[in-house]
Amino acid sequence: MSKLYDGLEPPIAEFIGRQRVFFVATAPAGAEGLVNLSPKGLDGFRILDERTVAYLDLVGSGVETIAHLRENGRIVLCFCAFEGPPKIVRLHGRGDWLEPGDEGFAALRARFAEVPLEAAVRAVIRVRVERVADSCGYGVPLYAYQGERRQLYEWAERKGVAKLADYRREHNARSLDGLPGLRGS
To answer: Which domains occur in the chain, in start order?
Structure first.
């Protein structure tokens, strides 16, 4: 039932483009530490070429993905069909991140839509895809898309630029396991 692909071939890219949510998983290098799995959405994913993808990393209470990428670079992205025919696609690869002010950040950031408060964007995660595989998705339930949630942007707007910077310094400098997080924190 599962198939491997040479890259992000058109049928896979089209499937990914239709999904409203995806999941990001990372883990620290050793046997200790927490595995992290985060849902993402808000039109924050882009395919850059057949072997490279990126997504907007918005302000949040943790910084696990960046901390794990800093330590070992391993990442997997998972896309599930919640509408239409069942399918799951996983992209395994090596990732890095660019923070505002890093060389190349502005050019990569320009590939995404504007957000209500730019200070809510803390990084762009970029993944060099090493393995593309699909599977049946028969066990994934059907859900109907109702719209995007606005709470993250509303929260960020209420905080404002200065308090968001304080929040990142307080909550995004280290992961839950104590690994270094954002460079700018």
So the answer is: 3-171 (2.30.110.10)
